[in-house]
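Narrative summary of target 7.
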Amino acid sequence: MKKKYLAIIAVMAMTLLCIGCKTTTNENPKGNDEKVVASEEVSKGDAKDEKEQISLDFAEDGMHVGDKVIPLPVDGAELIALWGEPRVVVHENEVNLDAPKRTNYVWDEIGIFCYLYEQDGVHSDVYSIGVVVNKDNDYVHYPEKMFKGTMTIEGKPWYKALPTGEDLELFRVYTVGDYSLWSEYTDIYNPEKTGTAADYVGIEMSIASE
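Modeled conformation, tokenized:
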């Protein structure tokens, strides 16, 4: 069953493709060129019951959520219909004010977030989806809770498939079809030391050219 949540969120988050900031006046620890200009503190929609485990598989045609396929880019409304109303975080570039605003939708209860660009005050399609398994930094677009479902890459355990991807020192990137799966190491000085999901922050899926 779906359960309605109304909880004040003090969320911290990470980024691979987009730099985020805190909901307070504190600066973004990974960059100082932008700030969060808006962050809805309450997730109002129907979230997945915590007992309901989500099954994700990253494949050539997109992210499989159960029997539904999510390609990129995708209309944000499709994700809202799937996971409920998200918390919204808006980032503004202080150096280039003409740059489009970047927005995150965050589903705090299930450990998933996504990135959108805003053009002319209207949210564009989602161009990246992130799943957080281990929180390593305090960023506002990090979900409050970690993903507890099952996650695979073309049917294989995700943390076993990732080591065959490209090592970029801080990240591992695995290509599947037209998509890049980015995963930050939890320990950059001794990466992949356990051979388990504990070695990675999670996965962010984006179009390979992004």
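Residues 76-83 form the longest helix (8 residues).
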